[in-house]
Structure formats: C-alpha cells, structure tokens
Amino acid sequence: MNKPLMAKATAVWLVDNTTLTFKQIADFCGMHELEVQGIADGDVAAGVKGFDPVANNQLTQAEINKAETDPLHKLKLKFNPASLGEEKRRGPRYTPLSKRQDRPAAILWLVKFHPELADAQISKLVGTTKPTIQSIRERTHWNIQNIQPIDPVALGLCKQSELDAAVQKAAAKKAREGAVMSDDERRKLVSTEQSLEMEAEPRMPTAISGLETFSLSDSGEELREDEDEGEVPDADSFFNLPKDAPDDEDEQP
Prior knowledge:
mainly alpha; 12 helices
C-alpha cells in the first residue's frame, strides 16, 4: 500500500495539525503540492473532515516529529502485518448501472467482428458473464431480435488499447495453433495503430481516357480509318439512301 486510506482527508488533518511542508504532505498522500496548498488556503477539499492517520494506525507520532524537524525527510506508512500477502482480487470489470443495458450490444459486436476472441476475453473487456456471451453466440438471448451490434469502445465499456491487446493476443494464440486465417480474419486482427500506418488502397478511377471512343463494332473501326485518312463521311451515307432516287416532291402529279 503506497498511499494512506482517505488520502485527501489525511492531507486535511496533516495541514491542520502539523507543521509539515506542503511537499512532504503531497508526497505522503500522493497528491500535488499545489493541491495541498489549496487545502491550506481553503480552496480545495472544503467541508472535508480530517482523517487522523495516527489514530488509525497509518502513521506514528515519532515519524511526524522527525519530518517536522527535517523538511527533507519523507513520511513513511506504518508497517501493518495484516496487509502482507494481500493481492488485488481479479474479477469481471465493474460496469456502471447506466451502461449495463449496452453490454449485449457490445457482446454482439465482438462476437460478430472478432469471433477469434474467447469468452473469457469478452467477459474481461465488457464486464459480463459467460452464460450471457453464450446466449448471444447461440442467439438464444431473450432480446436478441432487438439487439444491434455496437462497438464497445464507442459505448465506453472498454478502451481501444485494451481491445487491440485482446485481439493481438487472440491472433498470437491462433498463429501458435497453426490455424489458417482468411484475408478478412487477418484484417480484423490488425490493431488500430497498425491500420493507421498502412498506405491507402488504390481505388478504381471513375473515368479512363480512351474508353469513351472505344467500340466493338466494325463500323466504328471503319469510321476511325476514314478519319485517319482525312475523309469525312457524308451525312447521307449514314441513312443508306440511293443517290439517283427521285424526291417525293418531284413525283407529285
């Protein structure tokens, strides 16, 4: 344990009851020196009741006296045998109540776009249970017809770096197993940083010079040959009219 319990309230008590410097209090409580100065000025932690670290077995009076006489001395937490061997408990991620209704949409997105992720990885990213993930995979969830896949990063359920790390871990595991991945699966395993560094894919041009005059008919080839020789065809030749045919107006009685 690096910081005392109720660090800000402990800082309030040390400011009010000792002559320690702001830096000593800030280092002990894990705060900034200006924040401690704001507590002394009454601008920070207004209304916070001081928490006595001596009475709560976190600091000794001898340690405080030693720090008051030597401004360079750093306060040290009192040794607590009960804290030995205590580790951070691992469990599913805590999800606020306001976002718990968004978890099925995030699970569906992960199952759809990253099927290589294991249930344990999805559970750690979103903070859900394996039965819920399994019901969405098998489409047996009670509200599956109304669930739309949404990126968990956009929902604020996890960070992009956490999602990329999980995807890269799944990719490494799949590579070790020797499974053959398709191009779509390989693209999904690329992290956001790698995708941003990639060059843009070439696009098909909307117009290609020369195609507007291209034709497969023989008449088009003959027309280009005539144009190359400098001969311009007559307009009557397009209608195939005989040159000696009398006009309709001349045949009138």
